[in-house]
Write a structure and sequence with these properties.
3 helices; alpha+beta; about 110 residues
Length: about 110
């Protein structure tokens, strides 16, 4: 069930407010919520909601496609709801959020 607003811990709220650089590096325990908050920040940046204009091109990187889907894509799609989708174009899969799209650059046609 999708919540109206995502829940952020106090540390995640602080990261959300402070992560305004082009590259932000987070460290912490495996279950500290780093992936969740960075997914939210990334989606909001795609939509121009995180204090910066929407980025033009984006890439999602991960060890395997399954890991990316489980840890990044599925939570992002849940967060953005109807604004997000996965579409196949020219034999490649793209994640669309609003009018922005991203794909794995290692994917072959």
């Amino acid at each position: 069930m999708k919540a109206d607003k995502p829940y952020f811990s106090p540390k995640q709220r602080r990261v959300y407010r402070r992560a305004v650089a082009k590259i932000n590096i987070l460290s912490g325990a495996m279950t500290s919520g780093k992936t969740y908050i960075t997914d939210i920040i990334w989606a909001d940046r795609q939509l121009g909601k995180h204090g910066a204009p929407p980025v033009k091109d984006s890439v999602i990187l991960g060890r395997t496609k399954g890991t990316i889907r489980q840890n990044v894509i599925n939570p992002l799609l849940e967060y953005v709801g109807a604004l997000g989708s996965i579409r196949n174009e020219d034999g490649l899969s793209y994640l669309h959020i609003g009018n922005r799209r991203a794909r794995d650059p290692r994917a072959k046609k």
